[in-house]
């Protein structure tokens, strides 16, 4: 089993813009970057995705989200920020977020120009795009479309704790989960504590050799019987 690392850093851009950002030595991520790594993934391999991105072009975010969502054994870690289209990518699988990181979701924007007909048409396009992209948040959190669209309308910035409360992430990094006590059938019954069990264990005398051999023989017989049935 191999572990593959994917870094989503800087602006998320189309493939044919990548050379420009590389020329100036600026962080950027395009779909081709992700595809190049995923093409090496074999069945059973693990994929770790690290996000620190302000977002970028929406169809790039959608494409990367779709590629990662179709993979198994994918874990996503937000280490700096996951804003705009990058927050869409964060919804592609199990996700943890650094306690110092930020997430931001907002509506799609455009630099369109033209007369009132062009503006009215673009407004409808943007509303449709918002509805399409909000499905990533809905499927991750179980929130209603109305709740998600309202969150996007207000350009919502969230800490790790706030993102966890909304179900946008699964865990805050470095938090230790407290072990849960097993459920019991009734209020009058309780399991012994770990201290009680250790105390009793220390009081129990080791079985003599003859008893031990007898118990082992019975155990072997039960195993054999179970295998033949």
TrEMBL record:
MF GO annotations: ATP-dependent peptidase activity; ATPase binding; serine-type endopeptidase activity
Database matches in InterPro entries: ClpP, ClpP/crotonase-like_dom_sf, ClpP/TepA
GO biological process: protein quality control for misfolded or incompletely synthesized proteins
UniProt xrefs under CDD domains: S14_ClpP_1
Keyword field contains Glycosyltransferase: no
GO cellular component assignments: endopeptidase Clp complex
Record key words, sorted: Cytoplasm, Hydrolase, Protease, Serine protease
Gene3D superfamilies: 2-enoyl-CoA Hydratase, Chain A, domain 1 (3.90.226.10)
Similarity-based family: Belongs to the peptidase S14 family.
Entry protein name: ATP-dependent Clp protease proteolytic subunit
Organism listed in the record: Cuneatibacter caecimuris
UniProt lineage: Bacteria, Bacillati, Bacillota, Clostridia, Lachnospirales
């Amino acid at each position: 089993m191999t572990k593959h690392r994917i870094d989503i850093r800087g602006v998320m851009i189309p493939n044919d813009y990548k050379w420009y950002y590389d020329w100036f030595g600026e962080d950027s991520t395009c779909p081709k970057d992700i595809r190049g790594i995923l093409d090496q993934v074999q069945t059973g391999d693990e994929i770790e995705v690290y996000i620190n991105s302000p977002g970028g072009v929406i169809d790039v975010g959608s494409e990367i989200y779709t590629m990662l969502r179709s993979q198994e054994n994918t874990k996503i870690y937000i280490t700096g920020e996951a804003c705009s289209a990058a927050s869409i990518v964060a919804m592609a699988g199990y996700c943890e977020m650094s306690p110092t990181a930020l997430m931001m979701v907002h509506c799609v924007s455009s630099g369109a120009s033209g007369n009132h007909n062009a503006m009215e048409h673009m407004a409808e396009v943007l509303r449709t795009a918002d509805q399409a992209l909000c499905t990533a948040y809905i499927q991750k959190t179980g929130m209603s479309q109305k709740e998600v669209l309202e969150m996007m309308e207000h350009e919502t910035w969230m800490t790790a704790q706030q993102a966890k409360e909304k179900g946008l992430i699964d865990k805050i990094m470095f938090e230790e989960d407290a072990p849960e006590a097993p459920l019991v059938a009734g209020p009058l019954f309780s399991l012994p504590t770990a201290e009680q069990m250790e105390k009793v264990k220390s009081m129990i005398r080791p079985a003599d050799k003859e008893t031990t051999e007898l118990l082992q023989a019975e155990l072997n017989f039960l195993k054999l019987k179970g295998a033949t049935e």
